[in-house]
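Exam revision sheet. Question 4 asks you to relate a sequence to its structure. Input first:
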Amino acid sequence: MANTTSNRKDYSWVGSAASLLAVLTCYGTLAAVALLSVMGNGIEIDESLLVELVSGLLLLALAGMGYSYSVHRHPGPLLLSITSAALLLWVFYGTYSKPLELTGFIALVFASVWDFRAKKRACAGNCKR
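Answer key, structure tokens:
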């Protein structure tokens, strides 16, 4: 019997990629602005736009993690992603706390790595890569 999923595109990488992109967007932008300031080229960034961009990436990450869950059926990465995104959204739109922000982003990266490993174990050569 033919594998019916072999013709489907595999988008289970989207959640991990969006999670990592959210982290890079937040801290990469801050690092670039700091570097430019050190070089004498001070620029201002619209923090609300940055927060909206990162929030959108978090939502994309959650959607991707949900799809990835359908591939590997291990709820851990999805639950950790939901918790991390909720914490980060609270930090962005509620009460700001640098330690909570760092905790949220570290947990999000951990969830991405966990998701990748769960998919790798579940697929073991049977999933389209």
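Marking note for examiners. Helices lie at 14-38, 47-72, 75-93, 98-123.
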